[in-house]
Amino acid sequence: MFSNQNTFELNLSNLENKIKAYEEEIVQLKQQLEQTQSQLESWWLRCKIHRIPFMEISQVKKAKRQDWEKNLFGFGLSTPKEGELWDTETLEFKGWILGKDAPVDALEVSFNHKPLCQVPVDQLRPHIAEKFKDIAYADNCGFEFKLSSKQILLDESCLEIEVILENTQKLKIFEIHLKQRLTQSSSENVKSQKISLIVTNYLQKNSDLFLMNKDYEFAIKQHLCCESKKFLYCFIPKNACTTFKTVTAKYSIFSSEDELEKASKIHSHTNQLKPKVTELINESYFKFIIVRNPFLRLISAYLNKLVIKDRNNLENFGQDFKIMNESRLMTFQDFIQYVEKTPSQQLNVHWRPQVDFLLYNSYNMYLQFENLKQDIPKLEKALDIKIPKQNVAKNTTPYAYLDVGEPWKLHGEELWQIRKSQNVVPLPYQMYNDELIAKVRERYKQDKLLSI
User: Per the UniProt record, which residue ranges are transmembrane (predicted)?
Assistant: First the structure.
């Protein structure tokens, strides 16, 4: 009897061990299946992207000076640029043109020598207005238009942009040669809404993005990649981004410290650091971001970009140009009222809410701007990198207590004179009253959660 019972217990024990082994094998098989599915989806994504046709800007020819200098002060084309690839659904043009005797009212665009459309010249171009201060109509010398693939899609084609002069004569200023081809790799620099949509859909499905109603195309552009150290960095202006862009470049595109020192304008190198599609969807990459108290970020942006900014070196602030132009009369109170009422997508990046920059639901590390000295060693250890300590506080604003009443009501010009004469600006807490605190807390309530 005891022998039968022992045999039964032994068989039961063997059966339990086999079940446990099968369960462990099932878990392993599920993991392998998930990994295989992820690899297949990534492979499918790359294949799908490589099947999308694009337009290559093979050549951009600009008219010779002797042909236009009698009629024009100058002209330029910021986009598209030679060598770029564009989605065949749309091709976007942005530029400027300034007539000598009168403003240029319109341009004519031709496709393979046949008139296609006329484009008004009426867009703001503050950087041109700053160069030509004596020309009253220099403010609105810009042009912008889009062409669809249905209008210009051929294997090879030529676009011509001509000025319509007062005497109805035409003067060709640009000749743009296009050719259609497929992408050769997912790392090619493509201006594509279709790719953004494909990548966004993939990320939404597989990487648990931050919000379902945000501007993913914008957020993707705010990430830089270091392939050698396998990290993605989400950069936010006014959050030590110059320092961390430099660090990303150091381990990505510069082979020596000497080359890095020569790269004084690090922001011009960010296009070389844009992540590939495969890197955006690679969950093994370490992702980090620097966040900042929104109250302090707004003060810094207002003082640095609107008050202390060199007036001979104005940045093109796009839709925010009006406040750039009026910044010497604008009080901090006026500035807060402006950002409170303006939709986020119309705000300049220096005061756009930080949550708009986030692409993923979670990052491996959130560094606090106000606590960088303590947080940087943790990042250095995680990524095996070195961050130059002197760069972190390079652009520190000289705050000091000032015995002035209600500094939030001081005009930008008054603050500028204080800065020039005393080399200081009011402490951040001096710039807020209860009403402004309430407005900022509500407008940037999601940012406040990030900085806690």
Answer: none
Cβ distance 151 to 105 under 8 Å? Answer: no
Same domain, 236 and 148: no
One domain, residues 294 and 162: no
Among 173-187, 286-300, 385-399, the range with the most confident prediction by mean pLDDT is: 286-300
Answer yes or no: do 148 and 252 share one domain. Answer: no
Q: What is the pTM of this model?
A: 0.60
Q: Which helix (H) or strand (E) holds 73?
A: strand 72-79
347 CB neighbour count, 10 Å cutoff = 18
Nearest CA to 317 out of 289, 287, 349 is that of 349
Task: Indicate the range of 167-171, 286-290, 322-326 predicted with least confidence.
Answer: 322-326
Tokens of 7: 């045999």
Q: Is 245 found in the same domain as 153?
A: no
Q: Are residues 138 and 253 in the same domain?
A: no
Dihedrals φ, ψ of 197, to 5°? -65, -45
Integer Cα distance of 433 and 407 in angstroms: 10
Average pLDDT over residues 398-416: 85
CA dihedral 400, 406, 408, 413 (to 10 degrees): -80
Structurally, the chain folds into a number of domains equal to: 2
Question: Residue 167 pLDDT more than 90?
Answer: no
Is 100's pLDDT higher than 80? Answer: yes
The β-bridge relationship of strands 170-182 and 156-164 is antiparallel
Q: What is the DSSP pairing of strand 286-291 with strand 231-234?
A: parallel
Residue with tokens 């065949």: 88
Separation CA 407–CA 427 (nearest Å): 10
- Asked if residue 322 belongs to a domain, the reply is yes
- Tokens 């002060």 label which residue? 73
pLDDT for the residue 315: 43
Residues 165 and 240 placed together within one structural domain of the fold: no
Which amino acid, 177?
Answer: H
Residues 222, 340, single domain; the answer is yes
Residue spans of alpha helices (H) in 167-215:
193-206
In a domain, 279, yes or no: yes
Distances in Å between the alpha carbon of 447 and those of 237, 372, 420? 14, 18, 32
Q: What's the full length of the chain, in residues?
A: 452
Is the same domain home to 262 and 133? no
180, β-bridge pairs: 55
**Cβ–Cβ under 8 Å, residues 246 and 391:** yes
Q: How is residue 3 written in tokens?
A: 């022998």
The single residue listed with the structure tokens 């059966």 is 15
* Predicted pLDDT of residue 265: 62
Give residue-wise pLDDT tens across range 116-163: 899 999 998 988 988 898 999 999 999 999 887 666 666 678 999 999
* Weakest mean pLDDT among 281-285, 355-359, 390-394, 424-428: 390-394
